[in-house]
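Notes, p. 3: input format for complexes.
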Amino acid sequence: MPTRTLVGHLKICDGQIVWADEDAYALLDFPSGSLDDMPFGDVLAPAAARLMQVPARGAVDGRSVELHGRHESLLVDVRGERMEDSCVLWSFTLTARGGRGQRLELLSRHDALTRLPNRLPSIEELAPAHPPEDEVERMLAVCYLDLDRFRDVNEALGPAGGDAVLREVARRLKAAVPNDAAVARVGGDEFALALGVGSQEEVEQLLEQVLARLAHPFRLQERSTRLRTSVGVALMRHGEQPTEVMLQHAQQAVFFAKRAGGGQVHFFDAGQAQEQQEEARERQRIQVGLALGEFMLAYQPKVDMRCGRVIGFEALVRWQHPQRGLLQPAAFVPLIEDHELVERLGDWALGEAVRQAAQWLDTGTRTSISVNISPRHLLRPDFIERLGLHLARYPQLQAGVLELEILETTAIKDFAAVADFIVACQALGVPVVMDDFGTGYSSLTYLRELPVAALKLDQSFVRGMLDDPEDEAIIRGILVMARGLGRKTIAEGVESVAHGDALMALGCTLGQGYGIAKPLAADRVPDWIGEFESAPPWGRADGCA
Ligand code: C2E
Ligand code: MG
Ligand code: MG
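Output follows (545 residues plus C2E):
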């Protein structure tokens, strides 16, 4: 009786598969949810049983599973090793005896869903046996296709609908490329092509057709879904590099296609790839810095210039880098803006700001703190829940002590989500202010619907207002509009007493800027408030408390 064995590894962190042997991944399709809470046998046995079409009878003790079919049996041996608290590395061996062994072998090379191979052929397999003379200079293009926002499609159509879309993508891909091109499904929503071409233009033309076909609406469950696809391409003389290396290059290139907005083709560029690797290293360093507590918040005062009172502080993140010194956000925030790390940094900043506000309160300084929230962070489904948890740790803090600043550009991009976000924050006693206002061209209608507590005039207009009549006109316009809509305004970039005077003359009395104070270390704040309020630069107008 023939025997076939498949050995695989899966690394599961926080309930998600983060790494798997391609074979293993293709063979097992997993239920979503918290996998690492489950004995692995419970996950593997049904998945393997389904694929092997043998009834899952027999012993499942969490480590070793034996499945028996009518004519043959499948033996699953599982070993797990806990790597970190949230990660487990599982290795397993599937042994099939009897006729199903063939199916196991097929499955180990083919993706069960689309029936495509799960890897590209090797260079040797791709090379024509006897290349014609004039074909010697032929090149090989390896393309990595990644469906944009496929997660949304899956959510909208459900897993079965998502599977149907993937099968249709596979079908369209095969139909769109020449017969001798290789097509593979190399990941969940990732496909690869390998084809011989004569020039870059030839690949471009072909991919244009491929993308057009994939962009046709998919009709499913009486709904129509559209897909966009990003493509990375590695193009080389045939045989110069193994297909796996070219595929890695193509995968690096797809990152740039995605970053440029998706739905496009990007060719691999070695310099760019190196830059990307450096950025990845730098991100890793940020992650380490967060774990080591190298980040801190500086606090820049916001004042009522007319009354000479401090109204609160803006928390601005700084990185005390052990080698590079104190780094400003411009040196590291842009690197993580599109990355999960920005959520962690933001969450840390929220926790730190409420801790600081509570500490000041304990020592008699009652003031509010505003925290900048990145677009990606605020759209996180559990943002409000986390915000509530941070606040719950300090019940002594009153409503309004914590404030959030969000960018005008975020509000324009995802209006409905941002409107819900603002309402939910308000319900927790956290007002939301629109930062850098004037840079995003938001329409008046939008603004009327967004319940923001205040608009923060962008510093570029404020700084220029003394010399540039156009900047002054923009500020004037924003102030009139804000007044009409009943929104407070605060100016950032108040670089001098003269800026403050000019703003007050236009009716804007709240300000923040170097002319008042640069961002301060937390321990300077209580004294600074006393110093400022005892001798405010603009005096104290009539009627102020
Ligand atoms: P922002 O929220 O618009 O913050 C104001 C920036 O302007 C701060 O720069 C502040 O130091 C600077 N500034 C204030 N007054 C003046 C002035 O009179 N003249 C000039 N030239 N500059 C002034 P900083 O600290 O470098 O922060 C830059 C940006 O980084 C912030 O812009 C904000 O968008 C972002 N950022 C800061 N902290 C965080 C954070 O914790 N999380 C996130 N996601 N972003 C942050
Ligand atoms: Mg801000
Ligand atoms: Mg700003």
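The first helix runs from residue 22 to 27.
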